[in-house]
Structures are given as structure tokens and as C-alpha cells.
Amino acid sequence: MKKINMKVFSSVVLIGLLAGCASNNENVAFTNKNVKSQTKVDNKVSDIKTKKSDTLVKSNVSEDNTNSISKKDSYINEVVSVVNGKNIVLKSVHFGFDKYKLTGNMIDISNKNAVKIQNTLDTNNDIKIKLEGNCDEWGTDEYNYALGLKRTKSVKTALVNSGISSDKIVVVSYGESNPVCTAQTAKCWKRNRRVDYKLLP
Fold first, then answer.
1. How far apart are CA 57 and CA 63, in angstroms?
2. pLDDT in tens, 103-155
3. Are 61 and 180 in contact (CB under 8 A)?
4. What are phi and psi of 34, to 5 degrees?
5. Is the dihedral of CA 133, 138, 139, 141 positive or negative?
6. 138-163 in b/e burial notation, b at 16+ Cβ within 10 A?
7. N or C: which end of the chain has fewer CB within 10 A?
């Protein structure tokens, strides 16, 4: 029987083990890559969205006014209009992805805004109500402009049905050009799908 050279044998075993580990590590790395990209795909499918970084565009809109907005509705924006030195706070109404009809608690918010607006009109009949339609960044500029306009018309109809004269209401669409935040999150996109109410002298 031939003598086995222990140095050679040890080297061969060590090379085999290293090759096996490297192969296993490659598989693990590949699997992790798959998991990450699958998560990204799942996230996109769940909200069909993603873009931009976290900045707030201020136009009398609070980022998270937890004093007046419940946790459940913390994505809802508020706009403060000053009429004769008095702050009139109106909550924005928000919409689902690619939607323009008021639903659920947005109808309640619209009704509460209508009461505040009517009370303000009673003592300040010269003011106008400006409805600003906004969208998230998904879709073309043209499509989002049209969608923003549909949203304002839906809100205008609700105000008129509440007894506010249509000639007091001005509508404008900003499409995706007037976000209140630009983070790449579902909450941010939700906040941007909105109509803001502003009272003008």
C-alpha cells in the first residue's frame, strides 16, 4: 500500500471545503438578491408607486398636526386661510389611487368644511373658495392635470349640494406639480392625492 503524503492530502481537502463554501455563499447571496427584488416588486404592486425624497412643500399645510388630526387620519393635510385676522382651518379631502369621487370619511370632512365655509361667508360675503386639485407622481403630466380637475369638480359638487353658491367657487388643478411631501412612501403618495380648500379675499 502506498504512503499518503499528508501535506498533499490536507491541501486537497482544504481546497474542496473552500470550493464548497464559496459555492454555498454564492447561492445564499443569489437567494438574498431574489428576496430583495421580490420585495421591491411586491411593494410596487401593492401601491403601484415609488419616487422622490422627503421634503415638505409648505403652503400653510402642516406636516403632521397631531393636535387636530387623529392618528388614523394623520395623512390628512390642513390648510389655514386668514379671513379678517381669523384663522380658518380646512382639512383637505384625499382620494384613492386614480380616483376622483369622495368616499367614506372624506364625505364627512367635506361636509364639515362646507359648514365652516358657509359660516365664514355669512359674515364675509366677498370671499371666494379656491379648490386646488392635486395628484401623486404616477401617470403623465396631462393625465394628472385632468385627474386633479376631476377631483376639484367632485368637491365643488359636494359644496354646491351643501348650499354654497357655485359662483363663489374657483377650481384649479396642479396635477403632480404641488406635492406636500416627496418621500417614496405610500403614505406620502396618499397625502398628495388631494383637494385643498383655500379662502380668498
1. 9
2. 999 999 999 999 999 999 999 999 999 999 999 999 999 999 999 999 999 99
3. yes
4. -60, -40
5. positive
6. bbeeeebbbbbbebbbbbbebbeeee
7. N
Mapping DSSP onto H, E and C, the string for the chain reads CCCCCHHHHHHHHHHHHHHHHHHHHHHHHHHHHHHHHHHHHHHHHHHCCCCCCCCECCCCECCCCCCCCCHHHCCCCEEEEEECCEEEEEECEECCCCCCCCCCHHHHHHHHHHHHHHHHHHHCCCCEEEEEEECCCCCCHHHHHHHHHHHHHHHHHHHHHCCCCHHHEEEEEEECCCCCECCCCHHHHHHHCEEEEEEEC
For 195, the grid coordinates are 383637494
C-alpha cell at position 153 = 369638480
The alpha carbon of 4 is separated from its chain's Cα centroid by a whole number of angstroms, namely 71
Tell me: the pLDDT tens digits for 47-106?
333 333 222 233 333 333 334 444 556 678 999 999 999 999 999 999 999 999 999 999
How far apart are alpha carbons 166 and 127 in whole angstroms?
Answer: 13
Tens digit of pLDDT for each residue in 9-64?
444 444 443 344 333 333 333 233 333 333 333 333 333 333 332 222 333 333 33
Radius of gyration, alpha carbons of the chain: 28
- List of residues 6+ apart from 14 with CB closer than 8 A: none
